[in-house]
């Protein structure tokens, strides 16, 4: 404690960022302060105001670091960057870098396109969104295609350009075929303007025009034509139904509120675009150490807008701390004025109350689901224990698999299910070291031996206090082992466990002709399981997960080997360029076939690098 007291004494009275670390040196919390000395000291003072999660965090703090900044704004920016980098367990953690979908209209082209994108760039195009749910966006795009004959191709079409043959969409009246020169730029532009008006909520003129055309067609006994206009009106109604008007202005606004049941927090955000609620998103705030609503909302704002592509003009909140500082930070990120407002009455306040009500409902549903899922998983594990005649339900299940392709790069993987759910943090990967070729039995023997020898060694180190329990990776043994194979694999596992004097039940998953589990083998007996039973669903999930994890690992090793053996030999192509090439073309073969124009269009590939790539593969031939 002397070192900690000395550190507290040496804290400067300046703005900055502090990083709390545990005994393993892991960063568990990052915070910013206007005055570092005052803020950090608060954590170590005996205070009844500290909540249980703050107390739990403080118990885990073994040391801390701090970084002095010139201003509180610099501290805020640095705090956001460090949270994003380290993802500390006691900070509010939201989904990382979530990019919401936009509807993009390329109005800078002679014949604009309308499509969905997740990247909002300053490229002269018009964007609508962001939308928090992707499926309604695609449905809206499909409805727009039914109403307006716009192109869906990616061709670069110029006015008075070389005409092309019209595609099928033209012949079924879904496109006006600008590629074939069947519509002028001006006429096509009028159609695009109607699309923009519809997405902007100015659809009354379009509806009037379609109704007039429908009535004229009906009067002329052109019933098929009238039915077409009727269907377009129905499609427009569906688009309108997706967007509920809540105000008369047309600003981009977000409404944020939170709800707590004194144990957990839920944040809810409503997205309002052009005066309409176009969707919402909620977040359960895991490991939140704050108890003050204003602090929770402020930290939510930092994490959410630190990772989203779009920041609206106005953000409405029930309350918040550091509002002026957050406004300054958001304004610098957006490049335009951003306001955070706390409405005291009226329509905005009523909407915030609705947001809080939704947050409350979401948290209650979330907890009910957790409770229901927990009861369901316990019942399934009890059924599995009864089926195998185990003394206790298998709280922790480990499953193993071997993957290789034609005997090359054999790898082993271990996945873990606890309480019937995957525990990704305990997954392990093994490169096969002692086995050459495709020998699954010997490969399995190697990884099981390594896994449990590591575990026994860790247990000794923990007992002798040479290793903290928090640093252990293998010392927690399973209650049941599942092998991705039949009796042969089970016998290998039992042999390894017997040699190490470890007693753990081992089951094998017996496959059918389609490589799906049809039964379990246990104690040299095959146990049939009903295909639609809850036990079979759990076993299938485990089998699919261990197989997926093994294949993913094998592919990553194979890609690294290919990347090293071929692309590293090309002059002027470094690691960044290799990654960009594989990202765009997907394989070495596609890179080999790429033209100079395709290569030069790849990010970070200049003329010299493109020429070098072509020369390399040309010489290779």
Automatic annotation (TrEMBL):
Residues 204-239 form the UVR domain. Residues 13-92 form the GIY-YIG domain. It comes from the Bacteria. It is found in: Cytoplasm. The keyword DNA damage applies. The keyword DNA damage applies. GO terms for molecular function: DNA binding; excinuclease ABC activity. Keywords: Cytoplasm, DNA damage, DNA excision, DNA repair, Excision nuclease, SOS response. Residues 266-497 form the UvrC family homology region profile domain. It holds the Pfam family HHH_2. One of its GO terms (cellular component) is cytoplasm. GO terms for biological process: nucleotide-excision repair; SOS response. The UvrABC repair system catalyzes the recognition and processing of DNA lesions. UvrC both incises the 5' and 3' sides of the lesion. The N-terminal half is responsible for the 3' incision and the C-terminal half is responsible for the 5' incision. Interacts with UvrB in an incision complex. Belongs to the UvrC family. This is UvrABC system protein C. It comes from Clostridium homopropionicum DSM 5847.
């Amino acid at each position: 404690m002397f070192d900690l007291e000395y550190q507290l004494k040496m804290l400067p009275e300046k703005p900055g960022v502090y990083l709390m670390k545990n005994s393993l040196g892991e960063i568990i919390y990052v915070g910013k302060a206007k005055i570092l000395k005052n803020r950090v000291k608060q954590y170590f003072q005996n205070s009844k105001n500290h909540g249980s999660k703050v107390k739990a965090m403080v118990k885990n703090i073994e040391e801390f670091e701090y970084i002095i900044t010139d201003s509180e704004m610099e501290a805020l920016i640095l705090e956001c960057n460090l949270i994003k980098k380290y993802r500390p367990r006691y900070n509010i953690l939201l989904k990382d870098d979530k990019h919401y979908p936009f509807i993009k209209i390329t109005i800078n082209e002679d014949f604009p396109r309308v499509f969905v994108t997740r990247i909002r760039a300053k490229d002269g195009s018009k964007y609508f969104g962001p939308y928090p749910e992707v499926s309604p966006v695609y449905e809206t795009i499909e409805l727009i295609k039914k109403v307006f004959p716009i192109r869906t191709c990616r061709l670069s079409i110029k006015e008075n350009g070389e005409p092309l043959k019209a595609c099928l969409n033209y012949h079924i009246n879904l496109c006006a075929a600008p590629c074939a020169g069947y519509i002028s730029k001006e006429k096509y532009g009028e159609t695009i303007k109607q699309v923009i008006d519809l997405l902007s909520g100015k659809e009354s003129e379009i509806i009037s025009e379609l109704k007039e055309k429908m009535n004229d067609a009906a009067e002329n006994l052109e019933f098929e034509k009238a039915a077409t206009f009727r269907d377009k009106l129905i499609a427009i109604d569906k688009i309108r139904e997706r967007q509920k008007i809540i105000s008369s202005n047309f600003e981009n606004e977000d409404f944020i509120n939170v709800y707590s049941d004194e144990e957990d927090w839920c944040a809810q955000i409503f997205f309002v675009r052009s005066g309409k609620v176009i969707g919402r998103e909620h977040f359960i705030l895991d490991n939140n150490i704050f108890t003050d609503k204003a602090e929770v909302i402020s930290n939510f704002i930092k994490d959410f807008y630190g990772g989203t592509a779009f920041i609206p003009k106005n953000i409405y909140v029930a309350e918040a701390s550091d509002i002026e500082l957050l406004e300054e930070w958001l304004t610098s990120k957006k490049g335009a004025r951003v306001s955070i407002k706390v409405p005291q009455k009226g329509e905005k306040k009523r909407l915030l109350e609705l947001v809080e009500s939704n947050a409350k409902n979401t948290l209650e549903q979330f907890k009910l689901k957790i409770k229901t899922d927990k009861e369901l998983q316990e019942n399934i594990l009890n059924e599995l224990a009864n089926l195998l005649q185990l003394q206790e339900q298998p709280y922790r299940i480990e499953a193993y698999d071997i993957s290789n392709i034609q005997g090359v790069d054999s790898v082993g993987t271990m996945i873990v299910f606890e309480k019937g759910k995957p525990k990704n943090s305990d997954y392990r990967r093994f490169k096969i070291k002692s086995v050459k070729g495709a020998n699954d039995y010997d490969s399995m023997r190697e990884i099981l031996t390594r896994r449990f020898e590591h575990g026994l060694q860790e247990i000794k180190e923990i007992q002798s206090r040479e290793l903290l329990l928090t640093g252990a990776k293998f010392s927690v043994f399973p209650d049941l082992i599942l092998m991705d194979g039949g009796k042969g694999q089970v016998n290998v596992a039992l042999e390894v466990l017997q040699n190490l004097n470890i007693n753990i039940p081992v089951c094998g998953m017996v496959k059918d002709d389609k490589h799906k589990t049809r039964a379990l083998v246990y104690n040299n007996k095959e146990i049939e399981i009903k295909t639609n039973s809850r036990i079979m669903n759990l076993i299938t999930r485990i089998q699919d997960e261990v197989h997926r994890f093994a294949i993913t690992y094998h592919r990553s090793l194979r890609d690294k080997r290919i990347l090293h053996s071929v692309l590293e030999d090309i002059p002027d192509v470094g690691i960044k360029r290799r990654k960009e090439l594989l990202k765009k073309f997907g394989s070495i073969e596609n890179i080999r076939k790429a033209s100079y124009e395709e290569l030069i269009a790849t990010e970070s590939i200049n003329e010299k690098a493109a020429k070098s790539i072509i020369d390399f593969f040309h010489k290779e031939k």
